[in-house]
Amino acid sequence: xxxxxxxxxxxxxxxxxxxxxxxxxxxxxxxxxxxxxxxxxxxxxxxxxxxxxxxxxxxxxxxxxxxxxxxxxxxxxxxxxxxxxxxxxxxxxxxxxxxxxxxxxxxxxxxxxxxxxxxxxxxxxxxxxxxxxxxxxxxxxxxxxxxxxxxxxxxxxxxxxxxxxxxxxxxxxxxxxxxxxxxxxxxxxxxxxxxxxxxxxxxxxxxxxxxxxxxxxxxxxxxxxxxxxxxxxxxxxxxxxxxxxxxxxxxxxxxxxxxxxxxxxxxxxxxxxxxxxxxxxxxxxxxxxxxxxxxxxxxxxxxxxxxxxxxxxxxxxxxxxxxxxxxxxxxxxxxxxxxxxxxxxxxxxxxxxxxxxxxxxxxxxxxxxxxxxxxxxxxxxxxxxxxxxxxxxxxxxxxxxxxxxxxxxxxxxxxxxxxxxxxxxxxxxxxxxxxxxxxxxxxxxxxxxxxx
Length: 452
What we know:
Elements: H1 2-25, H2 30-39, H3 44-51, H4 53-56, H5 64-71, H6 74-87, H7 91-97, H8 103-131, H9 137-165, H10 169-190, H11 206-211, H12 214-231, H13 235-244, H14 249-277, H15 279-293, H16 307-334, H17 339-368, E1 372-375, E2 378-381, H18 383-401, H19 412-451
């Protein structure tokens, strides 16, 4: 009973810790991350690499099982790695304030932070798998993501307000200082997590055993290709908004609020659906939506800003499904196995693919960004050719996901169709039921009249 209480406390702590941690992590991603990189004078290839550092840093995951065996305790290993990474965040506002704003320095700081955070994440996943009941994982993580969405929305709005009213270096010194404080507070909360009893495997050939798991390897191939597909262009959507479309931070933050509000609804919806029909079914729906929405970016310029609202709606529905079910589908495959080794190999492959994608995307963006042309009254930028490339790759990723075999009762469209059929049958049955009831009442009256 005591262990159950400790696990419940850890689930609650994981929500608060993650929400506060995002106070720094948000600065490294999206338009805030791109703005910070530009403040350090970063070039297109460096912007691309910074944007995918969370994925690239997973290359180091192969040493996670060895660190665990060396330390002998998941929580201790997690805290060592998390401390190293989160303490390093203080160097960003310090270097900015001192005027040492070189792209190489920012890249080194963020790389160190990301590699340490990646290792800490491995041990966190192993702990949280033992803390959250498998049959309730989708609903728990959907609720957790809803809370993250609310806090992220407020943090993004605050940071955008600061940047619009304290332009240039001053604004970024303020928000990176706030982010560093958030990272340190989250570190304290992480130290309060409970680590349930866990047997550490010391056998040889652990990675070889993982590669023989056909179900897992099919998922790994999909996950790796998907990471490449996203990394090749992901930093340049925000770049296109800030540089080519010349949108300001306030507008983008308002768009973020719109997206965040929808995200909360979709997380709760997907959490319930995923526990019923399987995480993979929801994930397939999300990736198909992420594929379709990329079409809009082929026509996105200053005159078609309204397309951002359509993109935001489709993207929110899609990415909330992806962000939730990439994780829960992985947990299904890790059930009853040596989680650290499986997660390490998956993360390494993901990191290698993201690194390859970012390097290819960065080089392509460097050359493509030199071109613009006008056709049919619309201005097209060379960077949009990169969006066409990721569109094709996302389509291939969807086909690879269809080969994965996990719990999948029915697809999301199939579930909607089945629900519609049931509702239609009920609506059709109600008139018949009403008529039958009225006929029966009339017969009863006649029998009553005859008896009189």
